[in-house]
Design a protein that fits this description.
The chain is an alpha/beta fold. It has 2 domains: 171 residues, Medium-chain alcohol dehydrogenases, catalytic domain (Quinone Oxidoreductase, Chain A, domain 1); 122 residues, NAD(P)-binding Rossmann-like Domain (Rossmann fold). It has 10 helices and 17 strands. Helix 4 packs across helix 5 and helix 4 packs across helix 9.
Length: 332
């Protein structure tokens, strides 16, 4: 197979994003696969990286579906469509040996920390990180596997029953997926939606959408904060009941001011939550239990990547996809 020596990719550095055509083609190391990216999704973390959330210089992007071109030692993977877990663990530090590989002390993170990501024609990942995409799952749905897994992580961390009153604050890209996964538990669910079209999407799925200011204070057993801004925690704190649980999903540049005394007095449990299980996410997609396609708002070629990020940064924008295989104009 003849492959080029360089590739096109989006590059972030010093809070600036640019399109480059001179990025060396990544070479898979032992135990890794070379993957041609078929589709990648822009999430809030990507936007925050450009704003300086984390001092990363490289190719961003961690939501993707691709095709394996080379997988030394695992030839059956060649030609398969895959998605991939984003944490590259060392396997020998204390965290890894204790079974906490997503918190590896030496980890690299796809498109976020010391590992070029998915807004490129090609990427590499450890074979152990890859999951085959079921044949009946379209690329446009498979690209949601990573954020859908992150949504499912909440249920790995917090036991949620049908009797629980659960409030999700934030109905954007990730909030929509979180709401859909929580709906499957049968809990008493409501979602605070700032934008009308976000609320409409929720209601179309049979999920109660509330406007800001409509939620009763101190009444919710579990509150999931996914606003992407510092005010979200204050909203969550007001909403949760004493001895309730707040799940924090937002990552953003800057700091937050917390009244920890009030957290202690009301005995609030705080849970940080990020990456999650891929296999259940792919199963939900394959069984059509969750349909993420209505969340796709725009699709751009890689050459239009700067415009794609600008679109994703609009207030209320949902999922914007980047297609490294196509020179097509944006489809809005």
């Amino acid at each position: 197979m003849h492959l080029p020596q360089t590739m096109s990719a989006l590059w972030v550095e010093n809070q600036a994003l640019q399109l480059r055509q001179d990025i060396p083609l990544p070479e898979p190391q032992i135990g890794e696969a070379l993957i041609r990216v078929r589709l990648a999704g822009i999430c809030a973390t990507d936007l925050e990286l450009v704003r300086g959330y984390y001092p990363f210089a490289g190719v961003p992007g961690h939501e993707f579906v691709g095709e394996v071109l080379e997988a030394p030692g695992k030839s059956t993977l060649a030609g398969q469509r895959v998605v991939g877990e984003i944490n590259l663990a060392c396997g020998h530090c204390e965290q890894c040996l204790s079974g906490r590989k997503t918190h590896c002390e030496n980890r690299r993170v796809l498109g976020i920390k010391n590992q070029n990501g998915a807004f490129a024609q090609y990427l590499t990942l450890p074979i152990a990180n890859l999951h085959r995409v079921p044949d009946n799952v379209k690329d446009e749905a498979a690209v949601f596997a990573e954020p859908l897994a992150a949504a499912l992580e909440i249920q790995e961390q917090v036991d949620i029953s049908q009797n629980d009153r659960v409030l999700v604050i934030g109905a954007g890209r990730l909030g929509q997926l979180i709401a859909r996964t929580l709906q499957l538990t049968g809990c008493r669910l409501a979602v605070v939606a700032r934008h009308v079209h976000h609320g409409t999407l929720l209601e179309n799925c049979g999920i109660c959408a509330l406007h800001e200011g409509e939620t009763p204070d101190g009444k919710w057993d579990v509150v999931v904060e996914v606003t992407g801004n510092p005010d979200g925690f204050l909203q969550a704190r007001r909403a949760v009941r004493p001895r309730g649980t707040i799940v924090l999903k937002s990552t953003f540049k800057g700091e937050n001011v917390l009244n920890l005394s009030a957290v202690v007095v009301d005995e609030i449990t705080l849970v940080g939550s990020r990456c999650g299980p891929f296999r259940p996410a792919l199963s939900l997609l394959a069984n059509h239990e969750i349909d993420p396609l209505p969340l796709v708002e725009g699709r751009y070629s890689l050459s239009q990547g700067i415009q794609a990020f600008a679109h994703a940064a609009r207030p209320g924008a949902l999922k914007i996809l980047v297609d490294p295989t196509s020179p097509a104009e944006s489809q809005l």
